[in-house]
Amino acid sequence: xxxxxxxxxxxxxxxxxxxxxSTCIVKDACHGGYCFHLTAIYGRNNKLERRNLWKSLSxxxxxxxxxPWIVGGDFNVIRxxxxxxxxKLPDWAAIGEFNDCLRNVGFMDFPHEGCKFTWxxxxxxxxxxxxxxxxxxxxEWLQEMRECTTYVCPAVVCIMI
Length: 161
Prior knowledge:
Blueprint: E1 6-16, E2 19-28, E3 35-42, H1 47-64, E4 69-74, E5 84-85, H2 92-105, E6 107-109, E7 112-114, E8 119-122, E9 127-130, E10 133-138, H3 139-144, E11 149-152, E12 157-160
Helix pairs in contact: 1-2
InterPro entries: Endo/exonu/phosph_ase_sf (IPR036691)
């Protein structure tokens, strides 16, 4: 093994009604040997299809068990009315299910800098703005990875370690 490499081991991959999540274990062999879980998310734009995704995150919590865990991607749902500007009224049931999942698994929003809204659609006279893409993490991540920063750009979410 190369002592200057970052090793990524595939832990689990799930495909649920075209929503998906892929979790891997990241082990750093050159900076003290820390280990964390990283999950990439895509949630379909349908509340019923996302339910299996929320369940799979709950299932993964058993495997991760008190290891730093960060999850990022397109969740396709907002957490509160403040995360949407213009467009139709929010789906309160979808918001509730998402927040319940985050609370049950022990996730919190990862602090970020840059743009408030991560998604937009420009229509004739109005733009619709929402926070659909996000990075979330568990308490262990915040305790052990204090120096990490997330920058939200119009087309990119970047995690700086």
